Structure formats: C-alpha cells, structure tokens
Amino acid sequence: MYTITNPILTGFNPDPSMCRQGEDYYIATSTFEWFPGVRIYHSRDLKNWSLVSTPLDRVSQLDMKGNPDSGGIWAPCLSYADGLFWLVYTDVKVVDSPWKNGRNYLVTAPSVEGPWSEPIPMGNGGFDPSLFHDSDGRKYYIYRPWGPRHHSDPHSTIVLQEYFPETQTLSKERKTLFTGTALRYTEGAHIYRKDGWYYLMVAEGGTGYEHAVVVLRSKTIDGPYELHPEVTLMTSWHLPENPLQKSGHGSLLETHTGEWYMAYLTSRPLRLPGVPLLAKGGRGYCPLGRETGIARISWRDGWPWVEGGKHAQLSVPGPQMSETHSAPQANWRDDFNAATLDAELQTLRIPFDDTLGSLTARPGFLRLYGNDSLNSTFTQSTVARRWQHFTFQAETCMQFAPQHFQQSAGLTCYYNSKNWSYCFVDYEEGRGRTLKVLQLDHNVPAWPLHENPIPVPDEAQNIWLRVEVDKLVYRYSYSFDGKQWHSVPVTFEAWKLSDDYIAGRGYFTGAFVGLHCEDISGDGCHADFDYLSYQPATE
Q: By C-alpha distance, which of 347, 406, 405 is closest to 379?
C-alpha cells in the first residue's frame, strides 16, 4: 500500500466533487469568475491527478461578463450514471447582498472530455446543487436555498426535489431534509446510499477556519435524518496548529476495490511572525486559496469515520491498487506555439477570443489587445494561472509600444478586481516608455514609483519581467537584454493576496499570476508576449 500526500490538488478552488467510472476516478473543482468554468481531474490511484476537462468552455454554457469577484462557478457536483457524466453547477451573479443571487444548471456528456451538452436550467433559488441517482433509477436534486428572509440567523436549510430527466424538469414538491446544527452556514449537500441507509453529507461552519463536514442518515431519502454520533465527521477548528486548516465540504466515494475515501476542501496557512496563534489572524493567511485533500474512511456501527482522527492529515494510506507513477512535475512554461492556450491558463469571466487576443496574429507569441483595466468585471485582457507554491518565480518577455498614458501591458499578481499588483510598461509625454508598479489594496491604489518611474530605453525592443514569490513577500524585477536583471525597489505582501485578507465573507479564489494588456484611450494597442514561465523553488 502506498501513501497519499495531502493536498492532492494544490493551488485550486476545490469545493471538490468526486465520482468514478469503473476504475477511473474524477474530481470536479470550482473556478468562480475564471473561465473556462469547472476543472475536472482524473486519477487511477487517488494519488496522482491530471487535468482532463474544462467542460464549461463556451458562453452558451457560462456567461459571466459582469459577474462579481468570487461569483461565477460555485461548488459543482460531478456524477456518473446511465452511461453519462452529469454536472450541476451554480453561476453566482450577486455576492454582496443579504441572500445573493445565482442560476443553477445541469450539463451532461458521454465522456468526461465531452462534448458537454447545452445547459438545462435548474432554478435560481439556491446554490451548491447536487444530483443523487438512486438505485431504483429515480434522481433527486439537493441544494441550499436562499432568498429574502430575515438573515440575522443564517438560513441553513437543505432541500430536496425530484428530477425527471425525460422532461428535464423538477418536481414542484420541495422537501426539507435538514435545518443545520449550531455550526450554521449549512451548504454543500450530497446524498449517498449504503446498506439500506441514505447518508446526507453537508458542509457547515462557513468556508473559513470553522469549516466542518457533518453527516446524517435516514432509512428513507426524505428523512427524518439523525446526526452522526460525533456530529462532525471532519474539522480542523479544534487544532489551530494543524498544517491543514479550513477542512470541510466533503464528497464520498467507494473505490472499485471496496474501500471508501472522502475528498474535502482544505487550506495551508502561512503565519505572520509575532502574531499569537489564537489571536485574530493568528491561524494565518492562505495565498494558495482552497485546495483539495483526501481522507480514508472506515465504517463502524453504520456510520462513516475518518481514519486517524477527524482532522485533515498530511498523509493517508492509499487504496489496494497499483500506484500509477506520474513523471516528476517539471517547471511549467507556455511558449504560445500552439493554437490554443495551455490548460493551466485561464481568463477572467469571458473566453479567450479575438476580442482579448490572438495566438495566430504573430505565430509563437500571445498577442493581447488592450481592453479594460484590472479593476473591471467585464472585458479584461488578462491571461493567468494559479499560484500553486509558496515560493516560485514567474517570468515573461514582451514587446510593447504604447503611445498614450492610458495604454499599458505587463505582469500581474492578482487576487480579485480590488486586490492586485501590476508591474507594467506605459507611456508618458516627455519621457516615452516607462516601467512602473501599481498596487490596489482593498480598492485603495498606490503608485510607489510615481515620482521616479524607471525609463525604458528607446532601443529596447524586448522587455523581460519577472516576479519572485517567497512565502510572505514577493518582488518584481526587469531586464532589457534578458541577461542583466534589476530589482524593482518595492516589496509586496504575498499574504494580502489571500482569502483571509480580503474583507467580508465569500471570497475564495487564491492568488493568480499572469499577463495583462489594457487600453482605455480608444486608440487601440496590443502587446506581444513570447512566453510565460512558472518555476517553483526546490523544496
């Protein structure tokens, strides 16, 4: 038996949903405002995972233009039944109102790689939808409702409706299965069946450090449901020193070898020096966002239990399978020689098309056309990938000839439209091209090089930009010949690009690094990027 090291998926926004087809295993994860929507990973051993599908890849399935930060895709649920993969998901349109607002959909495909169908509307009255396929062929839709009720005590109800695939409709009858425990914030519900029992698994406590997995069971699908003897199947709240925190939002699976595992959401905090562990912010900050862990499950007295204790663990025993050894993860690089962007790259809210850029206008380069600025929720020419390591270096080389101060292009470290930094080249009358950095912190801008921007030589055709992230801090540097590098004399706090630093509830994405080109002059400009590389430090 081999050992599985957690997290199994790093630097992602999980809300993980796990399913299997024969001896193939899949996990679907959230993407929020990043396009294409939903990322599906495949494994043959539950240890080594690879990205195999991004099913919501066209606007007819997912139209997120104007969606708020951390809106978009919440908690997809992937299942396999009747020769099809079934994917239900929420497209959240409002996050900062008392009850939010979203639209739920179902898509299907004969293969996880697609083609995926056009979406079937599943109502707007809730979020975190799940689809349960019962052994008698009936199908049930489970979700957490929301709406204009009084929310001084958060609404924590889980509702079930029968789904009729022949007519693609839901029953008008809604059955309440559960109204939550004292942990509140009940969501992320899934139903499983084993040995004559229906098991209802939910997330509670919110998606922060209080997060937990709660399990109930019933002899009938519509209840009544009784709580697990320990109430919580998993949480790390009671262990503030545990390296894996925020553990919750579980998804169960039985392997083809008859063993049980649970995928769950977790985060790895970086702690600020000098801050007591139990003080506000003492548990730390998570710039890598929400990641995916896995736990081994045993059954006792008709209940599931996490082997080794209810907290998230850094390693767990693997199943009785042959380990599928994957090649060591090499440094990542996209030289933009293909007809499509590398699968690690995503865009904000809208697909990569000729509005944003081109991979053919200049072969071997990514051409980005100037569009909205980084604080826009509409048409941004931003192509980025997730931070997956606490220490790494990202680099690009670009050619850019701006003619107006409202035109810029460069490298960005981005959390959301109100929290980012940007190392860029622009144009100033009387100076020509200059290199600057700009930071937005809770929507408050700072221009550290405003008085003394770095001049770009007229003869510099190529401009290299680099960012080096070192745990709690990061710094930009530049070169005009690709050999001699110069540091930008500004240090940025990496921990500020985290779910924990962003004000309010409901921010989930973790940090990204990527390329950006903007033009609000109306004159039109573009920047050509030769490559983007991402090199994690040797740990």
A: 347
Range 332-536 has CATH code 2.60.120.200? yes
Which tokens hold the place of 367? 């051409």
Radius of gyration for the alpha carbons in the chain, expressed in angstroms and rounded: 24
**If one looks up domain 15-230+247-252 in CATH, what number appears?**
2.115.10.20
User: Per-domain residue ranges for the chain?
Assistant: 15-230+247-252, 332-536
- pLDDT one-digit tens code per residue, 509-522: 999 999 999 999 99
97 confidence band (pLDDT: 50, 70, 90):
confident
pLDDT (mean) for 427-437: 96
Catalytic residue (one of 15, 162, 499, 500): 15
Instruction: Output helix, strand, coil percentages for the chain, rounded to the nearest 5.
Output: 0, 50, 50
Whole-number mean pLDDT of the chain? 95
> Cα separation of 16 and 31, whole Å?
11
Catalytic entry in 33, 45, 128, 187? 187
Quick: pLDDT tens for 44-71.
999 999 999 999 999 999 999 999 999 9
Residues 153, 176 contacting (CB under 8 angstroms):
no
- Return the pLDDT at 506: 64
CB 41 within 8 A of CB 56: no
Contact 231, 214 (CB under 8 A): yes
Catalytic status, residue 187: yes
Amino acid identity for residue 140 in this structure: Y
pTM for the model stands at 0.96
Residue 90 and residue 129 in contact, taking contact as beta carbons nearer than 8 Å: yes
Using CB atoms within 10 A of its CB, is residue 429 exposed (0-12), middle (13-18) or buried (19+)? exposed
Q: Is residue 499 annotated as a catalytic residue, yes or no?
A: no
CA of residue 304 relative to chain centroid, distance: 28
Supply the DSSP symbol for 319: P
Residue-wise pLDDT for 212-242, tens only, equals: 999 999 999 999 999 999 999 999 999 999 9
Contacts of 536 (CB under 8 A, 6+ apart): 331, 388, 389, 391, 392
